[in-house]
Design goal:
The strands form three sheets. Strands 1, 2, 8, 9, 10, 11, 17 and 18 form an eight-stranded mixed β-sheet that branches. It contains twelve helices and 18 strands. The longest helix has 25 residues, at 358-382. The protein has two domains: 1-45 and 92-168 and 273-356, FAD/NAD(P)-binding domain; 65-90 and 171-267 and 368-432, 2-Layer Sandwich (D-Amino Acid Oxidase, Chain A, domain 2). α1 (12-23) packs parallel to α3, α1 (12-23) packs parallel to α7 (298-321) and α7 (298-321) packs antiparallel against α9 (358-382). The N and C termini lie far apart (59 Å). It has 432 residues and is of the alpha/beta class. It binds flavin-adenine dinucleotide.
């Protein structure tokens, strides 16, 4: 089987890239190991409101809108901020994946679910990727480019090297979440806010959350950074204890668990790792775009596809015309019925000049605030055990009490730490 671009992994990053390339007439195959994109919907999927517009996401993927914040802890402290108007959304992660893949298909991408990529080899100027189907049989795909969008698993690109150029240790967080149905009175209480449980008596070295979904459903979860130097209790027990503290006995009794899911987030903090090996290029979590401060990666995965798509199109145009770079072709929407261009092989050419710019452009797009928040995440969560750490966190939260809900959204989703200037600086520098 042949195609120009093989995208492996139909998460937000891979689904979005496939739809963008297909919409511009490129010959794309998108493969995903899950047979059903609605299953294993592991992500809590909270986003700020502006992300919907920025990435053109429809309301059909939105489970619920939220307009405020509640921060519980450390201990019994309870602080809330109400915005009056929506600040953000909680997505239905399965619906998001399905919509992106449906769009890619609508623009002509071929989509193969239930196919796991096993390995990818460079052969002359092509790549050969081996896929395994659900029934155990194998198939080979020959392509000009392969995109590893397999999330934190980095199935094809692999982890950053342990030593030498680009070496950087991955910081790992693990999350566990239940999707539950609760009595309406209970749902009402949590329906207009994102709630986080902070402090080592709630979740040592991490945090818990309650996110509203379609009435009367909630997502209840916990996550923490992995710390091999400490004995960390099983996460399932931590989640059960959190639910016991948050819901009244009658609410717990009436609660039905609809789904249990979870997963890993693994990111390097400085993002110096190689983003490609020849024409095998990493996208989304596969190149550490997830931010560990709030375990947030959907926006950043989509961003990585927005950065890579034009660079890759430049390459593909260059390949087709024999020049190194070329103009971005018009969308298929603008030229109804235009067939995808066939590839003209005009001999060897230097590898990926357009795509060479990808790591730098992605770093710029994520910005310095993103980088600072990654460092802050490692320090805050790994250090969050014991009463001294709880006191430091408590005094930071106290300093935010007079703020508006929108300021918290700016801080937690926009990483606008500088806004807090002198007050936050000692905390950011690790002085309190
Ligand atoms: C518990 C939890 C809660 C989270 N909550 C939030 C949140 O509230 N907000 C937020 O923005 N982010 C959240 N995230 C992070 C966010 O979900 C990820 O950052 C985002 O999904 C990354 O997108 P991606 O497309 O890069 O990778 P993924 O979404 O991981 O997609 C990768 C895809 O590749 C497939 N795949 C893997 N290996 C292969 C293979 N060999 N062959 C074929 N297919 C393969 C996988 O099945 C998967 O579908 C959370 C993550 C976890 C674990």
């Amino acid at each position: 089987m042949r195609c120009r671009v093989l995208v492996v992994g139909a998460g937000p990053a891979g689904g979005d890239l496939a739809r963008q390339l297909a919409a511009r007439g490129e010959d794309v195959v998108l493969v995903e190991r899950l047979p059903d994109l609605r299953r294993a919907a592991f992500s809590s999927a909270a986003l700020p409101l502006d992300a919907l517009d920025r990435f053109g996401l429809p309301s059909s993927v939105v489970a619920h809108r939220w307009s405020g914040w509640e921060l519980l802890g450390p201990g019994e402290a309870r602080r809330s901020w109400q915005g009056g108007r929506p600040q953000g959304v909680v997505l239905d992660f399965g619906a998001l994946r399905e919509w992106l893949v449906g769009e890619a298909q609508r623009w002509g991408a071929r989509v193969w679910l239930g196919h796991r990529a096993l390995a990818c080899h460079q052969e002359a100027d092509r790549l050969r990727t081996v896929l395994r189907r659900g029934d155990g049989s194998e198939i080979e795909v020959h392509s000009d480019w392969v995109i590893d969008a397999t999330g934190q698993e980095r199935s094809l690109l692999g982890d950053p090297p342990a030593a030498g150029p680009g070496s950087e240790q991955l910081v790992s967080g693990v999350g566990l979440e239940w999707l539950v149905q609760v009595p309406s009175s209970c749902w009402d209480r949590w329906s207009d806010r994102l709630a986080f449980c902070l402090g080592s008596d709630w979740v040592a070295q991490g945090y818990g959350w309650v996110f509203p979904m379609q009435a009367p459903r909630l997502k209840l979860g916990v996550c923490r950074l992995l710390d091999p130097s400490r004995d960390q209790p099983p996460l399932g027990a931590v989640l059960e204890r959190l639910i016991e503290r948050l819901l009244a006995p009658a609410e717990r009794q009436a609660m039905a668990v609809l789904d249990r899911h979870g997963g890993l987030i693994r990111s390097s903090i400085r993002r110096r790792e190689p983003h490609r090996r020849g024409r095998l290029v990493g996208l989304g979590d596969a190149v550490s775009t997830a931010n560990l401060l709030g375990g947030e990666g959907i926006r950043h995965a989509l961003m990585s596809s927005r950065v890579l798509a034009p660079l890759l199109l430049e390459e593909l145009q260059g390949q087709a015309s024999g020049s190194v770079t070329g103009p971005t072709p018009p969308t298929r929407g603008a030229m109804p019925g235009t067939a995808p261009p066939t590839r003209t092989m005009l001999g060897p050419r230097p590898l990926g000049r357009g795509v060479d710019r990808y790591p730098l452009e992605l770093q710029r797009a994520l910005g310095w605030r993103w980088s600072l928040s990654g460092r802050l995440a490692r320090r805050t969560w790994l250090g969050l055990h014991g009463s001294a750490a709880d006191r430091r966190l408590g005094s930071l939260l106290t300093s935010l009490e007079q703020e508006r809900a929108s300021a918290l959204t700016d801080l937690l989703f926009g990483y606008r730490f500088e806004r807090y200037g002198i007050r936050a600086l000692p905390y950011l520098l690790g002085l309190r």
